[in-house]
């Protein structure tokens, strides 16, 4: 009996090709809600929320029981299907492959693991053919709406992957019409545009391909105010040259210049909702060989407990297996799958900081970085991969112990050479490859080096023997396979034998680890002397490097960059260096096992200190150039170039600190402070404090370091500490060209501004405007004019700030600097907000797009916040509620409570406008309890309290008020989500409240 459950279209069940009548709409919804989580428990409350949301029927549990009873009766004859109820909830048990949604995902996983593009394209086609229409089109509950939206995103992502595979397989003629239609449906998707251009040019339609690019560029400029990204420009250049190679990875337009904020997701996202665009898992650039049984074991363990640790010797493939499992499982985590690589950390290094950077989370006011990570993850459902834990075992275990206890929706997949010994940990030992899989891996990697190589007959036996003697260790096998570029497999085996590896290994006297080290040593000894020197020096880098870094730190005396590139290419060919990405600037990485070997050789040669100091000096020089370039028109290029080197910057600072190299330490913290503060987090401010401890007497950069440290405290909402740090400057201002955020006097003025003394802040900034004019410093002038406008808006005299705001725009235009332009547009929007809200909104949106284009999360956030507040007051309240919810999430991730409290004030105003007086009163008390001003003055508070039938004392006790900061955010988010769903422009639900 063939059974098919259908969710990808209208909900339905077919048995032996005959349609089963499964009842009316709500009963079908109950079945669908269980099928989405097939084999996993769903509580009664969850089912009620999914099916009825906030409008459940009288005695909803009785209605739910009736529907389940009817479904059991209707499906009683379906073999292998059971609907049961246990302590954890209701479970529908059946073969997942009988459900089209899960079959779709299984086919996609197979496609992504396929070795040949033609096979992958065929599997993608089979998966996409399962879609019969829009899922749950007639179901209106928030849970199903959220699932419908996420499934649409998943389908689009799979379609894009299918297009790449089909193009690689030569099916360009079949794709032109289909991709053109998809681009009409998604007119701003640059990846689709690139695929269409390649399909057109490969079909002999070069003029059409060029026209597609012109149209796409026009739409991007008109809709987003942005030019095509580097990848699409590369496709354009290929078309012009008549070269239609593989389509490069195209940056999502939303990351470059986001459109207005979308409505937030439902409060109870579906557990199985895909996260195709959420997370930071690396793109797989080589095939995954074997280990299907290991994948099944790991996946099963991930579904049974909160922490799974893959253990095994170095080089056995733990990291590759972890990433593969994460890729296959990420679709069941609504908040995505995130990889945190711990290898760049020193022994017992800052694991919590590394996790925060990977998750793009900043430290919160009053919390340690570890507490911040826990609080951020507490209400989220995601998969966190912690790679290479062995050298930070105790620190990682402490963090994971807290995560397991306090973040029930988070599952951790760790790799380590030994167990973490955390309660609830499930260990999955990773064994070497089987003999057959070892042969497949050697063959695959060897053919990458020499596509014409035949490994049958005598060669096959040699390869099998090499794999066996290398103990099935993937890294050792790949190193050996890389040598077939210059020798036959038999010669590879002979060379290994001369190194005594095979002979000793055959007697069983070498452990797996010794076999690997011997293979690495053999590969190393076959290098030329210049290659050996470069390889060992490259071990100083953490988190990867580019060609400029390799040459600047490791290049030999008299070598040119081309000389270094030739040596680096040789190391890549021999699998000792891996190409991590290939965009505008390629980056490279030395795998941790190889890096440890290189570091040991460097120490043996007595060169580790010299190379470490060269590394620190190089990145200090890069930081100095970055600091200057962030104030120019090339800000975006420098941000994209430098952010991948964050781990190297940390390592450089630690080396400077260990050497008490004051100059290098201060150059690093002052030059990079703006990049890191506004794009990564506030960890750098603590480094600035540590650098100040090195200063003995005066130093030209001391005041800027004080400013950087003080600004970090201000961002964290620690005003007393910020004031104390800033006052250490003694009123001295740093020199021209200092990072925008590193002026101690500005921090003191901002503390005054946020504590209610806008007059004092205005006096400071008016004086600084005069100083900036005298110094002919346009970047500083934009900053100070911006703040004059802000102070005037706070003082409720925005018209008196109009001249400063307009001048800031004029000056910013002369700089071409995106952050300066963002600030200026924001300032003008602020003074226009009350008199001309429509023009103000346009300015705020422009400011947000400019900030996002250079990954400036702080100005992006405040522009989004003012735009949301303006929409809440002057436009549709539902749109305002949705936008304010997005801003809540933004500051929640950034960790800036100074801005989050301000955002909560805007939320209170909107709730009063909507008539949600009880919630407004609760949030009012949260603000007051935190020492923050509330938008409800005495008269407004009394009116709101009266509306809920409560006096001051009773209103203060409403629902446990006053809430903590996170509690206030949670309440605000839930209420905003509800109001965002309640109506849209012109809806009757809100018409009476405007």
TrEMBL record:
Location of the region described as Disordered in the Swiss-Prot/TrEMBL record: 257-278
Pfam families per record: BTAD, HTH_77, Trans_reg_C
Pro residues composition bias: residue spans: 259-273
InterPro entries (UniProt xref): BTAD, HTH_77, OmpR/PhoB-type_DNA-bd, P-loop_NTPase, Sig_transdc_resp-reg_C-effctor, TPR-like_helical_dom_sf, WH-like_DNA-bd_sf
Record has Cell wall biogenesis/degradation as a keyword: no
Superkingdom of this protein's organism: Bacteria
Residue ranges for the DNA-binding region feature of this UniProt entry: 1-94
Family membership noted in the UniProt record: Belongs to the AfsR/DnrI/RedD regulatory family.
PANTHER family, alphabetized: HTH-TYPE TRANSCRIPTIONAL REGULATOR RV0890C-RELATED, REGULATOR-RELATED
Name the UniProt record assigns to this protein: BTAD domain-containing putative transcriptional regulator
Organism lineage: Bacteria, Bacillati, Actinomycetota, Actinomycetes, Pseudonocardiales
């Amino acid at each position: 009996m063939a059974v098919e459950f259908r969710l990808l279209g209208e909900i339905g069940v077919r048995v032996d090709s005959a349609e089963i009548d499964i009842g009316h709409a709500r009963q079908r919804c109950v079945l669908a809600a269980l099928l989405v989580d097939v084999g996993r428990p769903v509580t009664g409350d969850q089912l009620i929320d999914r099916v009825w949301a906030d409008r459940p029927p009288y005695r909803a549990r009785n209605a739910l029981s009736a529907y389940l009873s009817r479904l059991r009766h209707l499906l009683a004859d379906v073999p292998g299907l059971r609907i049961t109820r246990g302590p954890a909830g209701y479970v529908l048990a059946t073969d997942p492959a009988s459900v089209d949604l899960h079959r779709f995902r299984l086919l996609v996983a197979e496609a992504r693991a396929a070795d040949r593009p033609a096979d992958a394209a065929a599997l993608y086609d089979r998966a996409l053919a399962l879609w019969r229409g829009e899922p749950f089109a007639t179901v209106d509950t928030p849970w199903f709406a959220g699932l419908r939206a996420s499934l649409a995103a998943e389908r689009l992502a799979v379609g894009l992957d299918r297009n790449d595979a089909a193009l690689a397989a030569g099916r360009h003629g079949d794709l032109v019409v289909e991709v053109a239609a998809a681009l009409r449906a998604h007119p701003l998707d640059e990846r689709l545009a690139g695929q269409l251009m390649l399909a057109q040019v490969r079909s002999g339609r070069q003029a059409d391909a060029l026209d597609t690019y012109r149209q796409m560029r026009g739409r991007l400029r008109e809709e987003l105010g942005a030019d095509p990204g580097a990848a699409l420009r590369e496709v354009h250049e290929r078309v012009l040259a008549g070269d239609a190679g593989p389509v490069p990875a195209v940056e999502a337009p939303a990351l470059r210049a986001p459109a207005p904020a979308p409505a937030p997701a439902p409060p109870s996202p579906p557990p199985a909702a895909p996260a195709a665009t959420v997370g930071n898992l690396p793109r797989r650039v080589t095939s995954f060989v074997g280990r299907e049984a290991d994948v099944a074991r790991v996946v099963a363990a991930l579904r049974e407990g909160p922490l799974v640790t893959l253990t095994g010797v170095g080089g056995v493939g733990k990291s590759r297996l972890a990433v593969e499992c994460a890729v296959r499982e990420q679709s069941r985590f609504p908040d995505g799958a995130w990889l945190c690589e711990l290898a760049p950390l020193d022994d017992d290094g800052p694991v919590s900081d590394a996790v925060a950077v990977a998750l793009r989370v900043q430290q919160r006011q009053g919390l340690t970085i570890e507490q911040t990570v826990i609080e951020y993850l507490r209400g989220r459902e995601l998969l966190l991969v912690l790679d290479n834990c062995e050298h930070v075992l105790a620190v990682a275990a402490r963090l994971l112990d807290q995560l397991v206890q306090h973040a029930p929706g988070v599952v951790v997949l760790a790799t380590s050479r030994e167990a973490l010994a955390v309660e609830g940990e499930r260990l999955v030992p990773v064994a070497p490859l089987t003999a057959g899989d070892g042969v497949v891996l050697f063959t695959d990697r060897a053919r990458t080096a020499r596509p014409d190589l035949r490994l049958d007959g005598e060669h096959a036996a040699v390869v099998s023997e090499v794999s066996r003697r290398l103990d099935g260790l993937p890294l050792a096998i790949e190193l050996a396979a890389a040598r077939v570029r210059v020798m036959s497999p038999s010669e590879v085996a002979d060379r290994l034998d001369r190194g005594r590896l095979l002979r000793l290994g055959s007697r069983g006297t070498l452990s797996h680890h010794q076999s690997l080290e011997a293979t690495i040593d053999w590969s190393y000894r076959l290098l030329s002397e210049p290659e050996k020197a470069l390889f060992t020096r490259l071990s100083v880098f953490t988190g990867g490097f580019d060609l400029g870094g390799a040459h600047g730190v490791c290049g030999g005396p008299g070598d040119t960059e081309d000389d270094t590139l030739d040596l680096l290419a040789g190391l890549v060919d021999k699998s000792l260096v891996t190409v991590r990405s290939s965009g505008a600037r390629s980056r490279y990485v030395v795998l941790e096992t190889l890096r440890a070997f290189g570091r040991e050789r460097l120490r043996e040669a007595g060169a580790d200190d010299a190379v470490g100091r060269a590394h620190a000096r190089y990145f200090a020089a890069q930081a100095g150039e970055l600091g200057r370039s962030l104030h120019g028109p090339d800000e975006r290029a420098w941000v994209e170039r430098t952010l991948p080197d964050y781990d190297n910057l940390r390592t450089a600072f630690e080396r400077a600190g260990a050497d008490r190299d004051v100059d290098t330490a201060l150059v690093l913290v002052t030059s990079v402070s703006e990049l890191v503060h506004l794009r990564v987090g506030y960890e750098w401010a603590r480094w600035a404090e540590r650098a100040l401890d090195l200063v003995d007497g005066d130093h030209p950069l001391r005041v800027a370091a004080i400013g950087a440290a003080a600004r970090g405290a201000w961002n964290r909402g620690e005003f007393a500490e910020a004031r104390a740090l800033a006052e250490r400057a003694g009123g001295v201002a740093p020199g021209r060209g200092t990072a925008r955020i590193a002026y101690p006097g500005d921090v003191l003025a901002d503390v005054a501004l946020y504590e209610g003394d806008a007059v004092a802040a205005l006096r400071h900034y008016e004086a600084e405007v005069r100083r900036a004019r005298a110094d002919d410093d346009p970047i500083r002038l934009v900053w100070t004019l911006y703040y004059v406008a802000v102070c005037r808006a706070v003082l409720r005299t925005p018209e008196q700030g109009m001249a400063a705001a307009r001048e800031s725009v004029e000056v910013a235009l002369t700089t071409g600097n995106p952050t300066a332009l963002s600030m200026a547009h924001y300032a003008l929007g602020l003074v226009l907000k009350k008199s001309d809200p429509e023009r103000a909104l346009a300015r705020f949106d422009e400011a947000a797009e400019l900030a996002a284009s250079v990954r400036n999360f702080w100005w992006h956030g405040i522009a989004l916040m003012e735009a949301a507040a303006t929409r809440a007051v002057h436009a549709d309240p539902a749109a305002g509620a949705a936008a304010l919810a997005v801003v809540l999430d933004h500051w929640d991730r950034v960790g800036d409570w100074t801005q989050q409290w301000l955002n909560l004030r805007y939320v209170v105003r909107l709730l009063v406008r909507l008539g949600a007086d009880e919630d407004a009163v609760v949030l009012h008390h949260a603000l007051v309890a935190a020492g923050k001003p509330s938008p409800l003055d005495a008269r407004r508070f009394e009116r709101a309290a009266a509306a809920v039938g409560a006096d001051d004392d009773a209103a203060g006790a409403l629902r446990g008020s006053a809430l903590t900061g996170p509690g206030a955010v949670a309440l605000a988010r839930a209420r905003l989500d509800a109001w965002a769903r309640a109506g849209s422009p012109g809806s009757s639900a809100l018409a009476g409240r405007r």
